[in-house]
Amino acid sequence: MIPSLSFRRVAFLAAGLAALFSCGPTQEVTGAEDGDEAASVTSNESALTSELSDEATQPMSASAADLAASAGDRVATHLAPAGCFTKTVSGATVTFVLTDCTGPYGLVHLTGTLTAVYARDPAGGVDVTITGSGVKANGAVLDLNATVVATQTNGVRNATVTTHATGTGARGFALTREGTYDLSYDPTAECLTLDGSWTTTVGLKTASTTIANYTRCKGTCPAAGGSLVHTTRAGAAVTVTYDGSANAAWASSNGKSGTLALTCSK
What is the pTM of this model? Predict the structure, then answer.
């Protein structure tokens, strides 16, 4: 007859077996999730900065106040439903108070207060400083502090964004992020593409992410061809490669690999 085991011993053995079979890929999976989370949060942030900085086609004679007034009117026509926001324009500054708005660039459930301050860049583009506290968008919550240099060529909008942001991503990870990235937006296809790098701090540890050709179109998962390399807080490098589906492949510098379920839908 097999001796009976106490609940405590059974729980202890179960915990030991779980640790034995899960300890291998956990760090790498977490690194892949961290990297994808950082990319997703940056995609949300770039959607906001793109929408608020699309004044590059205004003539060079336009003053900072003209740019702000134009931006206030333009953004107001892009948000739905009617009555989901208020705007205040004061000189070169526009302040939006948003409540569950939907907008371009794939933005949904956009809530919070955003302030944008405009200036004409000497090179012909538009400089915008964007701040926001507790801004909710696409499942992420962000405190934003970004500077944007925006231009437009052949209908494609381009911007270089320098950012300091804190918040919580759609996976629930709290983070602080600093870096610089380039974005382009094709309004016909409604697709954003990101290239750049940043550091992400969670607690007392810092990780870094470099992203290349990360493209997200409205209502889709990241497009095929994009990738990122995330150096984890423990020093391991994890590469995430996107194929257009709701899953991405990852491979670590120690030879391990797997797939990652993305927080998107197809």
Answer: 0.71
